[in-house]
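Work Package 3 (structural annotation) set out to generate three-dimensional models for the target panel prioritized at the project kickoff. During this period the team completed the workflow that converts sequence records into discrete structure tokens, so that structures can be stored uniformly alongside our sequence database. As a representative example, we reproduce one entry of 299 residues exactly as it appears in the project archive.
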Amino acid sequence: MRGPELAEMNAFVTVAERCSFAGAAVQLGISRSRLSETIRELEDRLGVRLLNRTTRSVAPTVAGERLLAQIRPLLNDFDAVLNSLNAFRDKPSGLLRLTVPPPVASFMLAPLLARFLGQYPAINLEISVDGALTDIVAGRFDAGMRAGDRVERDMIALRIGEEIRSVVVAAPDYLARHKRPATPGDLGAHNCIRIRFPSGVILPWLFEKNGRRVEVAVEGRLTVNDPELAVAAALDGAGVLYTVVGYAAPEIKAGRLVPVLEDWRTPAAAFFLYYPSRRQVPVPLRAFTEFLRENLPAR
């Protein structure tokens, strides 16, 4: 397969899997107009329509589905062959694409990025921070990092780092105006700041004590999808907040937020690096995995 044909096939697969010219153009790093032209040239040369386009959607035609099913494995094998050549280089090289949720990005990866890039100067790292359950195969990611209960069973998974725990906090001003909750059931009398995941699900408020686990269906006038915005609102006295310890720790240390319900533990979440089973793991991913084992040992 010649260079231009390979680029066209890669463009087609990316559009077909993402069902979006805009999203595919961003992933490929080219303009949307150039991507549309590339697909038109491919369809003209093959003499068949590969994609049905409307103003709202993009989907493969029957011919496009057949081409996608046959060309996707070939492109995967092509990538694997190129990655295998890294073994003959002095240092691992190539592009590593990851998708990770905000807490992992902030509290696990951020302190390690400069060290990793310094240790592997020939590896380029692209990280997409997203709380959604991203399909890493369709998104052309090499790996993802998610809580264990959100990793598909057909993935290879490596546990990383310490478990991440949450905490319930409120501003001193809020607690001065409202009775401090003594049990999770008391939260029903409070304005609780809720966090909504990209899936639309509200973050559950879970507690444990003496081997007993309870989930509280809290109510509140403020719902956000950003943990930092939630912390800012709690600082201003908007309500009680259930959040990852790392987001609240600096404010707790400074006395601007106060932990409540400290007699009740919140369940800890273990996080995993995961990736599809392949005959050959890309060399940049193998290097990253070893780096995490050394710097984020499983507990």
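DSSP finds ten helices and 14 strands in the chain.
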